[in-house]
Amino acid sequence: STAEIQDYLKTAIEVAKEAGEVVREAFYKEKSLQTKSNYADLVTETDQAVEKQIINSFKEKYPTHKFIGEETVAGGHKTEWTDDPTWIIDPIDGTTNFVHQIPHTCVCIGLSIKKQMVVGVVYAPILNEMYTGAKGQGAFCNGERISTSQQNDLKQAIIYLEGGSSREPDVLRRKCNIYQKVLQTTRGTRTLGSAAMNMVNVAKGSGDAYVEYGLHIWDFAASGVILIEAGGSMIDPSGGPVDFLSRRVLCASSQPLADQLSTTIPEHIEMERD
Ligand code: IPD
Description:
Elements: H1 2-27, E1 33-35, E2 42-44, H2 45-61, E3 66-69, H3 70-74, E4 86-93, H4 95-99, E5 106-113, E6 116-124, E7 129-134, E8 139-141, E9 144-145, E10 158-161, H5 169-185, E11 188-190, H6 195-203, E12 209-213, H7 217-229, E13 233-235, E14 248-252, H8 255-264
Parallel strand pairs: 3-4, 10-11, 10-12
Antiparallel strand pairs: 1-2, 4-5, 5-6, 6-7, 7-8, 8-9, 12-14, 13-14
Helix pairs in contact: 1-2, 6-7
């Protein structure tokens, strides 16, 4: 019900604020860091501590709910997404930015029910930006309504692209081809270093689209609700409906722009599914 969703959103905002405090406190300090799949895939003690804190807060309030958390999965738990209410958590999206003191770093908390995303909160504590969205209830930044640019001409659009954390030569070669084609056909490209920050920026009309191959459900589940509630479109890069476990996403300010970008991309990289 709407009242239940309102309650979930309110709780998610409180939990994200508490988590953001911890991120802010640690931001200018020395970090204790480890690598995950390769030397460019980072995790810090703060990512792990914040994820535990977030999960414990939700468990207290909603003992039957399930969780998918970036660092829990990195710790060896397979991503299991069921119809149960599930909190999908990235304690720090933009971990590399966090490590290098680049302010585009955020806490992402999404809620799915029957595998439909119903709540999304993205809190960027260094930038002081709290983005929120709930199904059918609009998207907001710091309480003000936000909406996409509604740009529908690729030639006038700004596109966010990410290098990502894969260092496999074949993936990088394909990404460079995509980069060249996107740059050729648009007004420009940008990289914020956080999937969620790219998406909330498209949601508020700061830039027009974003495409990435190689991310995970926790990087785009929460921000996806915000983008859609702001009037944007989110699809699989090859054109069909988005698939949260396929590790790929294409977002745009409007459906025509999403379709144009999808058909412009020379090849859609297949990633190993989550
Ligand atoms: C990463 C960031 C980055 C994107 C990667 C993500 P993390 O998330 O969103 O921008 O290119 O695909 O994995 O590891 O900082 O949570």
